Amino acid sequence: MFDSISKKEVWLEAMRSLKKRDKTIGRVIDRIGYIRINRHSDYFGTLVRSIISQQISGAAAESIRKRLEEICGGRMPTPREYLHTSNKQLSSAGLSPQKISYIKDLSERILDGRVELKKFNRLPNETVINELDGVKGIGRWTAEMFLIFSLGRTDVLARDDLGIRNGIKRLYKLKKYPTKERFDKLERLWHPYSTVACIYLWEYGSVGV
Q: In sequence order, what are the residues at sequence separation of 6 or more whose Cβ sits closer than 8 angstroms to the Cβ of residue 19?
């Protein structure tokens, strides 16, 4: 039903389309070239890692993730396994009481059917965002990252992402961060490949081309 950015033919078509419509980001695409993106197939694990990563460094989040996996037999726990792990053990992995409660809420919603991760492949972007937004500790940004890197959706413009805001400001030589009107214009210009534009903006920010 939905194309995926993990498919090479989709990505190449997105490159051609963006270069034709937007010469500015087209120059970035030409400099960087094709980017291979792999989807994260463990949906629960992806969301857990997103919660763990909130407001801490990447290195600290990775350390907590590894300790959590050690407690659960060397892999990310399932929702049921998480709920059967004591708060004391979860705290020993470095999870704060707040994040323990967030992941517990996600686990409970998955097990009682309020959140059906498997059906997300068939749902529109906004429906997925709204369902995930109901989970404690998961906001729109986390839901958008899930759409991009787990579901592989092609048309997600992460407006609240600082890297995207910085990238647009720098690339389009703006004095201030992009306004809603600017985002709306870019979203129309990049449709249906806003995700691919975002990934090139992230790469543009990291390598400075």
A: 25, 26, 29, 30
Which of the following CATH numbers is that of domain 43-149: 3.30.540.10, 1.10.287.180, 2.60.260.20, 1.10.340.30?
Answer: 1.10.340.30
The Cα–Cα gap between 24 and 45 comes to: 36
DSSP single-letter state for residue 122: G
Every domain of the chain and the residues it spans: 8-38+155-207, 43-149
The residues that are catalytic are 161
Confirm if 194 and 164 have CB atoms less than 8 A apart: no
- Residue 115 is given by DSSP the state S
CB-CB contact of 37 with 6 (8 Å): yes
Per-residue pLDDT of the chain in tens (209 residues, 90 and over written 9): 789 999 999 999 999 999 999 999 999 999 999 999 988 889 999 999 999 998 888 899 999 999 999 998 899 999 999 999 999 999 999 999 999 999 999 999 999 999 999 999 999 999 999 999 999 999 999 999 999 999 999 999 999 999 999 999 999 999 999 999 999 999 999 999 999 999 999 999 876 55
**pTM: predicted TM-score of the whole model, two decimal places:** 0.88
DSSP, collapsed to helix, strand or coil, labels residue 147 as helix
Contact of 197 with 21, CB cutoff 8 Å = no
CATH class, domain 8-38+155-207, is mainly alpha
